[in-house]
Amino acid sequence: MVRNLFLAALALAVAAGIGYANQSTSRKVVIPVSKTSATNGKQMYVNYCAPCHGVDGKGQGPVAAALKKQPADLALLSKNNGGKFPSTHVMTVLQFGTANPSHGTADMPVWGPVLSGMDATNTEPNVKALRISNLSLYLQSLQAK
User: What was the pLDDT predicted at 145?
Assistant: First the structure.
């Protein structure tokens, strides 16, 4: 009888331990998304990029700690490219994603589907290109001197 009670208690303890271990320790971060103007690179950056890359672009945004791989320091793009801002590369990454995605998918930013859908009903041509260009120009203004 004592043996059966002991085994039942042990089974209960193991089940409770497994249940506790299965709890996710990662935090889910929810960032509200609102449509921004295609002509305002700073506003787009603050809304879509700063949560991970930080307001200053140095990769220390409030969501950075929850990511598997730390965000790139966007303020060093020019420095890491011989002092010249790599605008073509930046615009390509913004449009098509990265070859080594840290966001789980190749979409860059993680807002890829959101940003693409934002202007789906817009009759003005090249709004996506305008967004990418203005965001790239704003990133250029964040470069370390």
Answer: 81
